[in-house]
Hints:
The chain contains 15 helices and 23 strands.
Amino acid sequence: MRHPGFFVRGRTLALVTCALLAIAAPPVDAHSAQPAPGAADIGDPLFPGLGNGGYDVRHYTLDLVYGSAAPVQSVPGRVTIDAKATQALSRFDLDYSGDSVERVTVDRRAASFTRAGDELVITPARPIRNHHRFVVVVNYTSGPREIAPEDAGDLNKVLAIAWFATPSGSITAAQPNAAHRILPSNDVPSDPARYTFHAITPGGVTFVANGELVRRKAISGGRTRWTYEEREPMASELIQLAFGALSVIDRGSDRGVRLRDVAPTSQAGELEPALAKEIAHLDYMTEKVGRYPFRTYGSLSSDATFPFALENQTLSLYPSFVFLPLDGTPFGDPRFYEPLMVHELAHQWFGDSVMPERWSDVWLNEGHATWYEFEYAQERGDPEFYLGGTFEERMRADYAAGDTFRALWGPVAAPSHGHEDIAQMFSPNVYDGGAVVLYALRQEIGDAAFRRLERRWVQRYRGEAASTADFIALASRVAHRDLTAFLTDWLYGTKTPAMPGHPDWTVDPAAARPAARLAPSHADRLAFKR
């Protein structure tokens, strides 16, 4: 900008001198900016206090020592975090709510630390420069806990435990906000990282984690050292640490993907017919949305009782009872469990490979997984049994419940519940309601454009976090017209918009529908599907 007094007589020389000095002055060095604390909260409205600012994590290396085969035990751990500063840091936080912290170093120098609620506040011996790569090592102790029998059906209580005992050993289930009970981390999906897992176990015990087994070595005392690598970015909430009397079933490769399943050794034979169906499911999903985004896939079936299935990256988690016949229930019936398996597999694209930027974007995970679950039931299963009618009839029923969904749980992309009630955040409105939004979008832009969008979405944002705004923008580009107003009404409106192409479809008044089961399918489906 030209200085307003530049041509004033008698002041030209001074101003020219100032200009020359400005030109000669060195640029501001971002590396020399005054160090300040990193934010202790990324500002997610559903989970205040979760996540941290000032750095991006690139890699976690987790070292665990299981001292015995007991399902409940204290597990000494060490996490090595390779991160990059996004500001000059005088101190920074990690999320952690485990049992204890023994020691912290930053770039090999002892660092001071304090614990404040679920925050581990670390002050390095020297401030960290902006853009500097640094390494944090935390020695800590945590471990699996028992689920009280009376709490086994309570989603909020089970997820708060995160690392829990099973009859055969222990497993983890950290979604959405409990990975920091398992390890110190930046516990938000918007900061994914690659992982290396090392575990030392007693002899005769199996350890399984996300990704690929790259080494298993016998060491002193009859123990075994296991190493797994997850080479693709992973959100902390998708971590899996399975331990105990487990059998690993190697199914070879399909479409370039290494398949392996994990089951309690005592149940492996019973579970085999169900678990083997994932090969056909992988074929189905790759035909729908393109190449599978990871190197491995499989199912982990657990003999514990818990009320959900979960899309842990490369290793979906299920309670075994889903696959085993039980009188008076749909359990053990392929018409029931196969669409659920497709739901969790679909999450490997929608939710795992492409992560939600904020938890209010969770409909991008669940709406898409529900869409392919329902399509599979229609195309390969028994839609009358599973959906209560055809795919189209199910969409119409869920559409009719739209105002009830929104009144109970908020708009599809703005859930009204979060940390205070996770079960309510994962409501039918982000599952069925999210699928209805996708149906409306397909009606609006046509099936061909919709299918292009689905493939473009998982290709464009592979390995990244993406938002609802990103989805709206990409949909507009694929459709070659601005869909902002259309999708904003569907995703953020408190009332359900008119369904394109179906002027005869109506929405029931919110007061006309109970809060229990709102669509004609099995009443217990949503009790354990995630």
